[in-house]
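Technical note accompanying the year-one report. For the benefit of new consortium partners, we illustrate the data format agreed upon in the data management plan: each record pairs a sequence with a structure-token string. No post-processing was applied to the example shown here.
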Amino acid sequence: MGYDYEPPGQDAMSGKKLAILFIIALVGAIVFIQALFGFPLLDIFRRDITEDATVIIKNDDSCVVETSDHPRNIENCPYDKGDVVTVTYREGTQPITQHQKKS
């Protein structure tokens, strides 16, 4: 009588099936965590958008430009209200990465 007794009608899970089950669980956990935090890995694949925008509000040291999706803020803004500025930003994000007055 040995220690490798299996009850009748129950098959032991093979190593191949166990590996597949582990991979499915791992992929599911990664997708769950990404969904929980708003899919931060997708930020890697966002593209840069460059467009012309008009300064609509000018405060002491900042201004607001109207872009195609929503208004964006420029800190330490050297532009005046009504200036047309070429701005670059990443799709789906708020900050402007580059800006210059359109000549």
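Partners are asked to follow this layout when depositing records. The radius of gyration is 28 Å.
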